[in-house]
Amino acid sequence: MSKQAATATTMTTKLMSSSRSRKRSRQYVGLLYISPWLIGFLVLTLFPFIMSFYYSFTDYSMIKAPAFVGLANYIDIFTKNPDFANSLKVTFLYVLMAVPGKLLFALLMALALNIGIRGIGVFRTIYYIPSILGGSIAVSVLWRFLFTREGLVNTLLGYVSLGPVDWLGSPKLALFTISLLPIWEFGSSMVLFLAGLKQVPKELYEAARVDGASRVRTFFRVTLPLLSPVILFNLIMQMINAFQQFTAAFVITGGGPVKSTNLYGLLMYENAFHYFKMGYASALSWILFIIIMAFTFVLFRTSDRWTHYEDGGDGR
Amino acid sequence: MRQITKWGKALGIGVLAGSVLAGCAANEDGGNAANGSGNGTASDGETKNVTLRFSWWGSEARHKAVLEAIDLYMEQNPNVTIEPEYGGFDGYYQKLVTQLSGHTAPDLTPLSADWIDDIAVKGNLVLDLYTLKDQINLEAFDQSFLEKYVVYDGKMIGLPMGVNGMVTAYNKDFLQKYGIPEDTQWDWNTIHDIGQQVHQQDSSVYLLGTLDFRTFLQPYMSQKTGNQWINDDKTIGFTEADLTEAFAYYKSLFDDGVMQPAAESSLYSEPAKNVLFQKGGIGLAFSLASALPQMKTYVPSLDVASYPIAADAKTSGVLVVPANPLAINKDTKYPEEAAKFASWLLTAPESAAILRDNFSVPPAAANAQSLADQNLIDPTVAKAVQTALQDPGDPINGVSNNQEIAKLVNDYMQQVAFGQSAPDKAAKELIERMKDKLASLQ
């Protein structure tokens, strides 16, 4: 009996061991499958992320080894660098113009394209194209050509005896002109809104119609509340993108005139790659990281008050 | 079977991941090879095969000429392979510093004048060419020019690829149209007075487009004080009153219609890119000789005169610079071969005949003369260099070339140009910020 028990125990142990071994080998295979991404993440994201935190406490020019300077970079940024306050102001203004503008435009376009007519897919594709091109140098160059004093926009204004307007040359208008670019690139937000609109149950619209609600009332009482989770997602993603905006200002105005478009991304770039103050630029980037994190946190915390989930939010 | 398929897939992924890593490794190898590679050893004998990497920036015409010169050199020196790396100026400095930092920089590269302090003087990342004088035909160059412009602390940081100087470039048709004599001796008063008259005659045109730190404020202050912008001891070379006066003059150029309004011109960093200049609506531009060919593509009637010099100037302030000193990376495995190639490229008559004025006027006087005799260099460029060399200002010291300070000055010039800051306020603030910056450079 005891021999049988011992044999059974041995077999069980072998089976368990074999099962563990198979499980482990499956884990290895899984890891191997995702290894390209994993390596990319570790080497190109996590490592620079950690190193930039270390560099933010150093004086590092790339030519010489980094020298530890403690909080000197942060102190200089907050107490001696007026460009920091200016870039923060410009970036906040940009976010305030570009993000609501883009979301509003994307929502309007999504509503317009959410109709069941023949060939609507073609229109949706056409309206999505600017997003595919979005963020590229070529589009920024095109924007510059459109809005220079001699550009197409002023030429068109000239036909109705208006202008010319210094869209990019005036410190009062340049930031506004640049913030129009992401609004034009509304495609990705529009697609998400379209998907959200498709999810709104038809019976709710029917119930609203039966109750005699007008179209506007239906939009504000039915469509908008049910779209609110998509709005939250779009808002957070677009806000993060807007805080990090670089290409448009770099290519179109170079931060001018009079630093009126010197977005935070440009300030970091200038310190990192013009003056090779890598430690200083790292400190700037960590400040931006904290700002974005704080705004994202606030949006999440306050979202309960204005987002509506059909399942009451449990499915989040 | 299932097991084999699973491991087959795993192997496939492994190979894929391995190839990604191998790709990275190959790049690293390529990078290391950058510092001179081949079968030769560090003490490169004449028959050893040597590979040198040579990078530069510029226009298509320049690329074509340099590639042709490289081919000729490799034909004459079969054991040497020159790997060309070329492109535009945008991002060149950023790339170069990153490469220097990673020890993957090319063996030979030109240096822009404002990088010399960081890379060659403070960074000490290029070879002292005096240590390679046996491989370089130094006699072909004007010795005083070399000592004045490419020798820092007794160390020769590069060989000038050309001679460049600042002049007043003018549109002949514009001058003729508004009755301005071509032989006008330009100084800051004539600039103001004539510019004002021109704009009164035709409100759509201006005598000047944009001005910046290098083309106006630095030489203007140099003429006024006789000092460097920043003295060698890192003190500021002028007083607040001097700077206030300079800003007030600069502001008067806008107020009196001498200069195109900043809102119209601020997008254009160079005169040749300014649409009004291209259309003939701007009369003058202060420019380096090397930029003239591009300007001439829009204004064929372009000619040059001396840079404006005030009657009471303590120094001419006329900027004369070696066009992009060609430096040798300290990490090169083949310093002697690199030096031989650099010397040939910049002094051999057959190379000069190919390069012509692609790096401005050739630095070797004999070659410059020969090309001029054969009409192989742009006569306007040749005239510009000759004009600038008639009364050159003092070479600009390293600290005055500091890019952060130059950017700061340009920012304050823009504030004055847009009327956002009064001259006295701008002068006070700029000096305070420069002092802060200089303190951090100590």
Automatic annotation (TrEMBL), chain A:
The keyword Magnesium is assigned to this record: no
Q: What is the membrane topology here?
A: Multi-pass membrane protein
Indicate yes or no for the key word Cell membrane: yes
Localisation per UniProt entry = Cell membrane
Q: Which residues form a coiled coil?
A: none
User: Gene3D superfamilies given for it?
Assistant: MetI-like
Q: Which family does it belong to?
A: Belongs to the binding-protein-dependent transport system permease family.
Q: What is this protein called?
A: Sugar ABC transporter permease
Origin species, per record, is Cohnella fermenti
TrEMBL record, chain B:
SUPFAM superfamilies according to UniProt? Periplasmic binding protein-like II
Q: Which domain of life is it from?
A: Bacteria
State the organism named in the record: Cohnella fermenti
**Which Pfam families does the entry link to?**
SBP_bac_1
Per its record, how is this protein called by name? Extracellular solute-binding protein
Q: Which residues form the signal peptide?
A: 1-22
Q: Which UniProt keywords apply?
A: Signal
